[in-house]
Amino acid sequence: MSRIDRTAEGAGPFTTRLTWRLSDGGTAVWESRLARKRGRLTVRAAGDSESRSRSADNESVGRLRRLNALAAGAFVVGGGLFASGAAVAQFGPGDVTGAWIFFAGGLFFNAGGYVSLLQAVNAPRQDDGGAGELAARRWRWWSYEPGRIDWLSTFVLFVGTLVFGINLLSSLLQGLSAQQVNRLVWAPDMVGCTLFLISGHLALVEVCHGRPGIRPHELGWWIVAINQLGSVLFMASALADFTRPATGGVVNIDIANWGTLTGALCFSVGGVLQYFERP
């Protein structure tokens, strides 16, 4: 199939959808999230009323399926542990047990963030040599591609999970002053929440091909929207967890705990839905 023109859509410097209009009258459409998550693009022949999917090669599809399952499982378990840690902090005997549960959950979030980045790094790309095809890529553990919105979104997410790790490690320390708690625990928590929000916004831009909107008929949109709601709840929790130097107490412990619990459940639900967004 030869091409006669190509239309790009997206936001700013990022391209999230490419549409080729073919010389035979048909079209081929590549979408960033569809190719990354499901390993396919959409082709419509001239005169056809319905589009059909064209998948990448079997090796790429199998790779995406495995990575998707790992990332989804990591966020389901990580979110569950975070919710459990918040429940222990709210209703349980003390902070130390909850801190260790949070730390374990953070490790799963680290894994989920990195596997999500691996999925972006190793996703099949549109073949510039011929529309309607996806080109396989050799396996890589890392790449630097800030011009791609899927890479940037998953990279920011992964960095956010690492910053949360600093927060979670510091929360295991005992005998900290209010200033030390704010510097070692609260500040990394705020940075991590901010990075999660940025990642979620980029994911919304990717799935909406521009300005974020509402797309209730798309599974990818639901996953991104629920995760972004979780990030908002995490941020509310972080703001409420600031320790007042004068009193040594946090702004609002109930909001801090319930924000973490509900936000974590959002990521668990997002992980369950993500499992079904596979090739």
Report the sheet with the most strands, covering strand number, pairing sense and barrel closure: 5 strands, antiparallel
Q: Classify the helix fraction into a percent range.
A: 55-70%
Shape: elongated
Query: What is the percentage of strand-forming residues?
Result: 5-15%
Structural class: alpha+beta
Record the strand order, biggest sheet. Answer: 1-2-3-4-5
Question: What pattern of helices and strands is seen along the backbone?
Answer: EEEHEEHHEEHHHH
Uncertain regions spanning at least 5 consecutive residues? none
What is the count of DSSP helices, taking H or I runs of 4+ residues? 7
Q: How many domains make up the 3D coordinates?
A: 2
Average pLDDT level: 89
- Separation of the first and last Cα atoms: 24 Å
Total DSSP E strands: 7
What is the CA-atom radius of gyration, in angstroms? 21 Å
Report on this model:
With 279 residues, this protein is an alpha+beta fold. The protein folds into two domains: 3-55, no CATH class; 58-275. Helices cover 60% and strands 13% of the residues. It has helices at residues 32-38, 58-91, 95-122, 149-171, 178-208, 219-240, 253-275; strands spanning 3-11, 14-22, 27-31, 40-44, 52-55, 125-126, 134-135. The strands form two sheets. The protein has a five-stranded antiparallel sheet with strand order 1-2-3-4-5. Helix 5 (178-208) packs antiparallel against helix 6 (219-240) and helix 6 packs antiparallel against helix 7. It is elongated. The two termini are 24 Å apart.
